[in-house]
Write a structure and sequence with these properties.
The chain is 47% helix and 11% strand. The strands form three sheets. The protein has a six-stranded parallel beta sheet with strand order 5-2-1-6-7-8, with helices on both faces. By secondary structure, the chain is of the alpha/beta class. The chain folds into two domains: 274 residues, NAD(P)-binding Rossmann-like Domain (Rossmann fold, 3-Layer(aba) Sandwich); 206 residues, N-(1-d-carboxylethyl)-l-norvaline Dehydrogenase, domain 2, CATH 1.10.1040.
Length: 494
């Protein structure tokens, strides 16, 4: 099968939606750090549609900060790729042309710094995952013990970290008189761009640079909320796409029809016409952010850990089990919604129904193991802050506590049949040590996990209502398994 490229565009099937702007004539005005599947299914699609509607030089210079996989997928295809939009009934394909170049940070350090400093570039976006910012999960402060952060604080000649690249680029931008720029975190962090700004300012102070005054006057950090479920692309997805597209596409991404982007209207200069492409510009992102983090991401994490332990490889499989569906609906309705702000025009009950329908999408095949990664980085904002809010007002936390216990059970590294779990987490070594020392003693295991201050802070270990529920749930998970534990929970009267 011939491979997708600019030369082969004429060979795509008629059903494939193509860009309507003159791709070869559009310049780069946007840099993106962290070109993963989500970025290609979300941000790049918004840019593509914005240029379809309003034109402009808003092609993207993409940067992979760690490895060459995405570069090696995209470059032979002239940075073209397809988005497969899937619901339970059908799949349609859209060719995305908004990425103009792709580089790998370790191989092209100076070019990447130069892109951030380029006067034609007025927007930088980031999807580097929670751990990519070099922040401690509990306080949100800069983690100066991380190797790449320590390296960049000592020398910015060849930056390694996200913050290092940004600061080096901003220094060069200042020195060259390149003008103002807007930097937007698009990761699932509370107050994402505000936290990025604080970390960047802390980095600047520790690195003893003189850029803070210029930065305050010339750089804006609008907060944002992004939402689209994007599972990892499989070999079967690629084979299916070949039949649908008529060409081989190594960079294909698979996603759902739903997409949302809410952005604080605070920019230093020009921006793509994202609003014409469906993005919502608002004065405050926080209500949308909290609703998404707590209801969607919190429920996703709960389903991921309990579903994986219960033998479900995919989210839709867990949702097909009435016990799991009842559990997650109860948690979202009774424990999360009451302490979550309701954005204007959004009813929590309707949002919950829509989320559950999205989780049931059989075409997405969103792996529980994929969602389960990096739990130590995700739990605070997805589950623990909701628990804190409920503890403050005396509300129910049994379902949320079960999700936390399921994470602990998963992090021990053995499934219910004794098989090894590939626990991908920055604290995986510490989890393995806990597993070795506690020997499936629920009380001791929970105590060891709760002492991880970077996850649980200093407060939750002293909350007996929370700790007792976690121990009880963890004991049930160890003795009866996830499926039976969820069944017992779902059978309880509300």
């Amino acid at each position: 099968m011939p491979r997708l490229s600019a030369e082969m565009l004429g060979s795509t099937r008629a059903a494939v939606e193509l860009p309507r702007y003159p791709r070869n004539e559009t310049g780069i005005g946007h840099v993106h750090l962290g070109v993963g599947a989500f970025m290609r299914a979300h941000i790049a699609v918004y840019n593509d549609e914005a240029m379809n509607i309003a034109g402009g030089n808003w092609s993207i210079a993409g940067v992979s900060l760690r490895n060459a996989t995405v570069r090696d997928q995209l470059r032979p295809q002239d940075c073209l790729y397809n988005v497969a939009v899937c619901d339970s009934a059908a799949v349609y394909y859209r060719l995305i042309g908004s990425i103009k170049s792709i580089d790998v940070a370790p191989d092209n350090t100076d070019r990447i710094v130069g892109l951030i400093a380029d006067p034609a570039v007025s927007v930088v976006t980031l999807t580097v995952t929670e751990k990519g910012y070099g922040l401690t999960p509990d306080s949100g402060a800069l983690d100066t013990q991380l190797g790449e952060i320590a390296h960049d604080l000592a020398s910015l000649q060849r930056p390694q970290s996200t913050l290092g690249f940004l600061v080096a680029g901003l220094i060069r931008r200042r020195d060259q008189g390149a003008g103002p720029i807007t930097i937007i975190s698009c990761d699932n962090l509370p107050r994402n761009s505000t936290r990025l700004r604080q970390a960047l300012l802390e980095f600047v102070d520790l690195a003893c640079t003189d850029i803070q005054g210029w930065l305050d006057e010339n750089v804006r950090f609008p907060e944002t909320m992004v939402d689209r479920i994007v599972p990892a692309t499989t070999h079967d997805d690629l084979k299916d796409a070949e039949a649908g597209i008529g060409l081989s596409d190594a960079a294909l991404v698979r996603t759902e029809p739903f997409t949302q982007w809410v952005i604080e209207n605070d920019f230093a200069g020009p921006r793509p016409a994202w609003d014409k492409a469906g993005a919502l510009f608002v004065d405050s992102v926080e209500p949308y952010e909290l609703a998404k983090l707590r209801l969607l991401n919190g429920a996703h994490s709960a389903l991921a850990y309990l579903g994986y332990l219960g033998g479900h490889s995919f989210i839709h499989e867990a949702m097909a089990d009435s016990k799991y569906a009842a559990y997650v609906r109860y948690m979202m309705t009774n424990e999360i919604s009451p302490v979550t702000p309701q954005p204007e025009g959004m009813q929590h009950a309707n949002y919950v129904d829509a989320l559950l329908a999205r989780f049931r999408n059989t075409s997405l095949r969103h792996r529980t193991a994929q969602i389960a990664m990096d739990g130590s980085q995700k739990l605070p904002q997805r589950l623990l802050n909701t628990i804190r809010a409920q503890l403050h007002c005396g509300g129910p936390i049994a379902g949320l506590s079960l999700a936390v216990a399921a994470w602990m059970r998963y992090a021990l590294g053995r499934d219910e049949h004794g098989r090894s779990i590939d626990v991908q987490d920055p604290l995986a070594t510490r989890f393995a040590d806990i597993a070795t020392r506690t020997h499936d003693d629920a009380d001791e295991t929970a105590r060891c996990f709760l002492q991880i201050r970077s996850v649980f802070g200093d407060d939750l270990i002293d909350e007996p209502r929370f700790t007792s529920l976690v121990v009880e749930h963890l004991a049930n998970l160890m003795q009866h398994g996830a499926a039976n534990t969820v069944a017992m929970f779902s059978a309880q009267p509300e």
